[in-house]
Amino acid sequence: MTETELTHSAHWGVFRGRYDGRRLRVRPHPGDPDPSPVLDNMPSAVGHPARVTAPAVRRGWWERGPGRDPARGRDGYLTVSWDAVLDRLAAETHRVRTTHGDAAVYGGSYGWASAGRFHHAQGQLHRFLAVTGGYTRSVNSYSGGAAEVLLPQILGGFDAVTRYAVTWDQVAGHTDTVLAFGGMALKNSAIAAGGVSRHVERGAMRAARDRGAVFILVSPLRPDLPEEVDATWVPIRPGTDVALMLALMHTVVAEGRHDAEFLASHCAGWERLREYLFAAPVKDADWAAAITGVDAGTIRELAWRIAYGRTLVTVAQSLQRAEHGEQPVWGGAALASVLGQVGLPGGGFNYGLGSLGHYGRPGVAVPVPTFSRVPNPVNSFIPVARVADMLLHPGEPYAYDGAERRYPHVRMAWWAGGNPFHHHQDLRRLRRAVAELDTFVVHDPAWTATARHADVVLPSTMTIERDDIGATSSDPLVVAMKQLVPVPDEARDDYDVLAELAHRLGHGAAFTEGRSSYEWLVHMYDRTRKALADRGEPAPDFEEFWERGELELPQRRDDGGVLARFRADPAANPLPTPSGRIEVGSATIAGHGDADCPGHPAWLEPAEAPDGRHPFWLVSNQPATRLHSQLDFGAHSLGAKRSGREVVRIHPDDAAALGITDGEVVRLHNDRGAALAAARLSDDIRPGVLQLPTGAWWDPVPDPERPDRGDDGLCAHGNPNALTRDHGSSSLAQGCTGQLCAVALSRYPHPPPEVAAHTPPA
Ligand SMILES: Nc1nc2c(c(=O)[nH]1)N[C@H]1C(S)=C(S)[C@@H](COP(=O)(O)OP(=O)(O)OC[C@H]3O[C@@H](n4cnc5c(=O)[nH]c(N)nc54)[C@H](O)[C@@H]3O)O[C@H]1N2
Ligand SMILES: Nc1nc2c(c(=O)[nH]1)N[C@H]1C(S)=C(S)[C@@H](COP(=O)(O)OP(=O)(O)OC[C@H]3O[C@@H](n4cnc5c(=O)[nH]c(N)nc54)[C@H](O)[C@@H]3O)O[C@H]1N2
Ligand SMILES: [Mo]
Q1: 468 domain-assigned
Q2: Same-domain check for residues 64 and 24
Q3: How would residue 294 be classed by pLDDT, with cut points 50, 70 and 90?
Q4: Quick one: 129 and 199 in the same domain?
């Protein structure tokens, strides 16, 4: 390793790193106008004790063989040689496939992994599982599960209407009013899968505001829009946004300020929705005030404001990561249609704008390097967040997108690049589900809570320990990601591990296609080089690209995409919805006959909401100081904790009523579990709401308040998924509903246990 400064890339930004044989120093790419502080977690990864240093097997599995075992998550580990573990794993894969069929292998393996396009853990795992016989896969994401199923049926292809519709340049140049449901928090748009070289969101919002644009933040949390836009804060009750949207539509229509022409020429199902708005109970401002906690006067004022000038309605991903999460997405699209703004520059509706750094950019004009897929010969899938249901209820029926389906009987689960024991809801239930497996295999660089439940733990390299290519279709830079630090101990690239396993199973050549890692990078890059050459643009060869460290790609034209074309000529450019129009009401969805997702946006009472026993809404949003659970032990992440514990935000009035002081350790609890966190008093949050971000590694210990819950009643560290409800958004999409749950809050009358999440198991 030389001491020169080298380029690398992460989901939170492109950066430069220099290693002196002991410490890694990093700085952001000089072209990034607003780099993310999450980068400061990176140096802590070097030599951290939480790293997995050698292949490990769970004692019970190694000694007694595969099978159902409640000891998963509670057992000790043995260190074994790579050869021994790969031999055993190859034999077990063969056993499961021949005894139970290929669908008995679950390769859904959800998770963000690292930014490089070649060493992308899911891509590698899917390829391995596909060439060795196939697997049960997962569909949709935790991020946008409800929207991914709904949007194509009512508006258009998910990427087309989220990534390539309204851009930040359009917001800076055209928007008069931004009505942001769930906000557009800079902490979130700092992140883009595959990397982001320029964080443009703050600059664009500031430019809009300097031009006179007005920002309205509908959210329980004030920091969901940057301070410098001086947003009007409407601190709504969580989970009730669709009621506000319906009242805004009702008010605009009742006052005759809706765009009747646009509704007639570009929309379908308006009669269905209109009837609902005016049927008893009439969905007016007074009706919504009682549900949302936003007073009727404010609602009427908002309805007045948005009906003039260029209005953009945005809906953050968080709103649909909830029970009936389809409704606020549909409501936002319908509201923008009632205003007649869809398809105008800087106007209309953009789901997810500001939730991720991919959105609001025109995208690149040529294909970026990607790892080639191999078709999965098995056609068995589940909606991704139904994984615990699948393991607990094999063969049982469930509804999804208008069909009745049955869960496959999975015996072996394989995870690379994801951390379900951070990301899934109701982690004690997930632990019971994972006990049902014969074998659970996890590739990870670190001893996460997921690794601690695995039978086989395979130590992966981290991104800074290998060469790769960083690229995404939303960012102009292709980055030569260069190895910054040596590979520690016995860690191996996922590719090398899976190649060896494929070889043992007789499919080595199909997996590698005879290429080394370096040859794969050259091969992947070539697609982009060729496309550039075809356009007559400068097309450096791989060596030159690698030497330079980056390549800037031409951008697509910022033309508003499919929605602008549809607006201009709906007959010539129909949307891919059943009617070819924006479906503000849908006959197809109505036809499913599901009460939990009717044929138009609707307010539906949630099954879970605060009550006398659990008086608070817990918002578990994305953490500002890290990406999910990644590098939770990093300096920036730890810097925001208190005594190593995650911090819960509480309104001072709520704290005072419970006698809670700032910094004190508190207990959040409900019928599913409990978690400790350090209290932070803040009037940036709506009273009655608590906020605890995701990502603190689950650290189950006995709960002295609930000895009946055994050894995992309490998370000592503050992972909100100790408390969340594991239930689909509705029978339409079955999306993740992790964002919101109802909890009680108390002082913690015992000496708080030390957080042990970052210390490897015995
Ligand atoms: N309560 C609640 N829960 C939520 C959410 C919420 O809002 N509330 N949000 C959900 C959302 S939107 C998401 S996307 C999920 C995110 O959940 P995940 O994507 O599972 O979270 P990450 O922490 O990014 O997990 C990535 C894992 O991959 C590992 N890794 C990194 N690089 C490599 C590599 O090269 N090889 C291998 N083998 N492993 C690697 C990391 O160490 C880490 O353990 O969480 C969901 N969970
Ligand atoms: N720093 C950082 N950024 C990230 C990530 C990360 O882990 N760390 N993860 C990335 C990923 S995978 C994803 S999918 C996106 C997710 O993007 P989002 O889902 O948009 O992000 P969240 O932070 O979970 O939620 C945004 C805000 O919505 C508000 N909110 C919650 N419930 C409600 C509600 O019912 N109504 C209203 N009006 N507001 C509500 C909360 O105050 C919250 O701060 O973020 C991405 N960006
Ligand atoms: Mo996500």
Answers
A1: no
A2: no
A3: very high
A4: no
Strands 232-234 and 214-218: parallel
Please indicate, yes or no, whether residues 206 and 322 belong to a single structural domain of this protein: yes
Closest atom of ligand 1 to CA, residue 741 = 1
> Rounded to an integer, what is the distance from CA 152 to the centroid of its chain?
19
Q: For residue 732, how far is its CA from the centre of ligand 3 (angstroms)?
A: 20
425 and 385 Cβ atoms separated by less than 8 Å: yes
Index of the ligand 1 atom closest to the CA of residue 462: 35
Q: Is residue 600 part of a domain?
A: no
* Known catalytic membership, residue 304: no
Contact 477, 485 (CB under 8 A): no
pLDDT computed for residue 2 by the predictor: 53
User: How much is the pTM?
Assistant: 0.98
Dist. CA 270 → ligand 3 center (Å): 32
Which of ligand 2's atoms lies nearest the C-alpha of 38? 1
* Residues 359, 340: Cα–Cα separation, whole Å: 22
Q: Over the stretch 322-351, which tens digit does the pLDDT of each residue have?
A: 999 999 999 999 999 999 999 999 999 999
339 and 385 within one domain = no
Does 151 lie in the same domain as 131?
no
Instruction: Answer left, alpha or beta for residue 394, where phi above 0 means left and psi between -120 and 50 means alpha.
Output: beta
CATH code where residue 446 lies: 3.40.50.740
User: How far apart are the C-alpha atoms of 271 and 584, rounded to whole Å?
Assistant: 9
Answer yes or no: is the C-beta of 320 below 6 A from any ligand 1 atom: no
Query: Helices 241-254 and 270-278 meet at what angle, rounded to 10?
Result: 90
- Secondary structure of residue 603 in the 3-state scheme: coil
Q: What residue type is 87 in one-letter code? A: D
Determine the distance separating the centroid of ligand 1 and the alpha carbon of 423, expressed in angstroms.
Answer: 6
Q: Residues 174, 347: contact at Cβ < 8 Å?
A: yes
Of 508, 513, 466, 554, nearest to 118 (Cα)?
466
CA-based radius of gyration for the chain: 25
Query: What CATH number does residue 155 fall under?
Result: 3.40.228.10
Neighbours of ion ligand 3 (CB under 5 A): 143
Residue 553 lies in a domain: no
Q: How many CA atoms lie within 13 A of 649 on its CB side?
A: 21
CB 412 within 8 A of CB 68: no
For residues 87 and 31, membership in a common domain is answered with no
- Compute the CA torsion angle 10, 15, 16, 17 (nearest 10 deg): -40
Under a CB-based contact definition with an 8 Å cutoff, are residues 29 and 35 in contact?
A: yes
Is the model's pLDDT at 374 over the cut of 60?
yes
> Quick check: CB of 738 below 6 Å from ligand 2?
no
Domain span at 14: 6-45
Each residue's pLDDT tens digit, 456-503: 999 999 999 999 999 999 999 999 999 999 999 999 999 999 999 999
User: Does a structural domain hold residue 307?
Assistant: yes
CATH number at residue 727: 2.40.40.20
Cβ count within 10 A of residue 471: 28
Q: Which of 546, 354, 553 is nearest to 468 (CA)?
A: 546
Q: Is 328 in the pocket of ligand 2 (CB under 6 A)?
A: no
For residues 129 and 228, membership in a common domain is answered with no
Catalytic residue among 12, 62, 77, 112: 112
What sign has the CA pseudo-torsion 354, 356, 357, 362? negative
> Residue 1: pLDDT band by 50, 70, 90 thresholds?
very low
Tens-place pLDDT, residues 82-115? 999 999 999 999 999 999 999 999 999 999 999 9
For residue 145, is pLDDT > 50?
Answer: yes
Q: Which stretches of 267-397 are DSSP H helices?
A: 270-278, 285-292, 296-306, 326-338, 387-392
Do 668 and 724 fall into the same domain? yes
Q: What share of the chain is helix, strand, coil (3-state, %, to 5)?
A: 35, 20, 45
Number of domains in the chain: 4
Nearest Cα neighbor of 183 from 619, 563, 597 is 619
